[in-house]
Structure formats: C-alpha cells, structure tokens
Specification:
342 residues, alpha/beta, PfkB_dom, transferase, Ribokinase-like
C-alpha cells in the first residue's frame, strides 16, 4: 500500500500515536532584552531585560515536540528537588506531556540559561548536577520506565545528553524488552553504549557522527560534510547498530542512510545558528511520527526537516507549532500546522 504523500494525511495518520520519551530532562532559560550601552566595569554590553522565559529542554523538549505534533506523550526521567525542578515539571505539564519524572533528593536540576540581545546569544550559563543519579532515584527511573513500557507505546525515544539519568540499568531494561518495542529511536551525544541494543533509528548531529567514527568534527567552514557522511556510511551503520542513521547538518539539512541501501538528503531553510537550540528534538519527532504513519524513508526525512525548520523560526528552544485541533467536517483530515499555508 502506498504511504500518504502529504503532510496533512500523515498528520492525520499519526494523530494520537503513543510515544514514550526517556532521558535527560533539563530546564532551558532565555533572558532577552535590548543592549543599551557598554558597561563601565568591562567592555561588555549592558542588556535591559524585556522577557524571561523558561521552557522544556533536553528530553523534555523532545517530548514537547511530540505532544505539539499530536502524539500522546509520556516522559520518564528525573529532576532535582529544587525550584528549577519544580519549574521544569510545570513546563512539562504545560506542554501536554504526561509527567513520570522522578524527584532525586539532594540533586540540582540541570539548567541552561542564555542571555539574548537583539536575537544574538551573548552568553550561556549551565548549572546543575550531571553525575549519575543517586541509587534510590536511579531505581525509581528504572521502575517507571518498566511500567511505561508495559503500556505498549507505539514508539520509544531515548534522549541521552550525558547528564546522568540513563545508566546501565536503563539500557538493560530496554535490551530485555527490545523484541517488543516496535520503533526504538536513540538521540545521544555518545551512541556507542546504545549500539548493542540495535536501535531502529539514531539521529546524531555531525559532531556526534564524527564521535562515532572516533574523529573530531572538522571546524573548517568549507568542509564537505555531506560527502564525508556519505563516505562513512558503512562505518556509521555498523558502529551505531541502527537500521536507519539520520545525520543532521543544521543549515545543510540532513543525510539519511539505511542498512538496506536506501539514502535520502534533505535541505534546510536558512536560519540563525542561535535559533537552532533543540531543533534535533523537532527533527526526531517528525521522523518518528512519519514512520508510524507509514511514510517511507525519504518522506519521513522530509517531514522531519519540515518540523525542524518550523520549530526554529523564532528565538529560543525549538518546539513545533501545535497541530490544529479541529478537523475538516468533509474529509475528517487534521489541519496543517498553525502558521503554515494550506
């Protein structure tokens, strides 16, 4: 049967899909304002703050993207027992994601706060505990993951940002249940520990793909990244253990390759690099949901790229605009994304 060929049909097919996201949830903060003068203390701008926003980051951002696209989304992870953890929980609830986060006593929630002046990021402050979770919290995460997997989600997405939520016990649970997981996606800074599980899809950035190959990402602006990824196709598939590898390349789109030889390349709309925070979560959400809707590799990559492009239109952590709730009375099809032409 031919898969749906346009975004609205795919969105109607994936609506209400059940997605479980497990991983490193963090709080993203954006302090935006207008530069008024140079400080007398140092040659730095003085920024008069206009807006302060706190939003879902890391695995919470990925979950928020799934929810915005219409999926029934559950988040398993951990937060600290601090004010930032409470604010992150509020952000998760506000995004429409089911909260199965564990509170780790004595732990500080990881936060990333940026100061933005006239859409330029001036500085980022990172805070919080990034070591392994204390044993009681780690055991609670494993229990909640096992419970959530028992509800048979349509897809499982792992978000490993290296801040301590996902240890060997989590990988053991996923490995034990692997045959019963219909679509397992891994988005990880370090993909090596996840390769033995055999993910269906991995979505590394270019730097993360280079890390898989044991190389440092070139910094030259004229580097042929598309060509480099194509040349390393076999190694990437073998070292990640994945059926599909989708390497995201920011302004150059993405390169997608599969074990059966299929390939695809997407193009991206121009955007400021400062707008790309969290774009990987939107890309992964679009790709996974398109696959659940029956799209082929090329279609799924195109949907993923479209979602990422829409998510980074403004300044801040990228989240797709929410799907229209109403459907057509004549066709029953779900509406296109808000702000998109029909």
């Amino acid at each position: 049967m031919r898969s749906p060929s346009n975004f609205s049909e795919l969105a109607a097919a994936w609506r209400d899909a059940s997605v479980l996201v497990v991983g490193d949830a963090l709080l993203d903060g954006w302090l935006a304002g207008t530069p008024t003068r140079l400080s007398r203390e140092a040659p730095i701008p003085v920024v008069a703050l206009d807006v302060t926003r706190e939003v879902c980051g890391g695995a919470a951002n990925t979950a928020a993207n799934f929810a915005a696209l219409g999926a029934r989304t559950t988040l398993v992870g951990a937060v600290g027992d601090d004010d930032d953890g409470a604010r992150l929980r509020t952000c998760v609830w506000d995004s429409g994601v089911a909260d199965r986060l564990v509170t780790a006593v004595g732990r500080r929630t990881v936060t990333k706060r940026r100061v933005v002046a006239e859409e330029h990021v001036l500085v980022r402050f990172d805070d919080g505990d990034t070591g392994p979770l204390p044993p009681p919290a780690a055991e609670s995460v494993v229990r909640r993951l096992d419970e959530a997997l028992g509800e048979r989600p349509d897809a499982v997405v792992v978000c490993d940002h290296g801040i301590g939520t996902l240890g060997p016990a989590v990988r053991a649970v996923l490995a034990a249940r692997r045959l019963g997981l219909p679509l397992l996606t891994v988005d990880a800074h370090n993909l090596a520990p996840w390769a033995p599980i055999g993910p269906d899809l991995v979505t590394p950035s270019y730097a993360e793909a280079c890390r898989v190959l044991g190389e440092a990402a070139p910094v030259a602006v004229d580097e042929d990244r598309i060509g480099a990824i194509g040349a390393a196709r076999g190694l990437l598939l073998r070292h990640t253990g994945a059926a599909i590898v989708a390497v995201t390349l920011d302004a150059e789109g993405s390169v997608v390759m599969t074990q059966n030889g299929a390939t695809a390349h997407t193009s991206a709309a121009p955007a400021r690099r400062s707008h790309a925070a969290g774009a990987g979560g939107a890309y992964a959400a679009g790709f996974v949901l398109a696959r659940l809707a029956g799209a082929d590799i090329a279609e799924s990559a195109g949907v993923a790229q479209r979602c990422a492009s829409m998510a980074i239109r403004g300044t801040g952590t990228a989240v797709c605009p929410p799907l229209l709730v109403r459907t057509s009375e004549t066709t029953g099809k779900i509406g296109v994304l808000e702000g998109e032409p029909a």
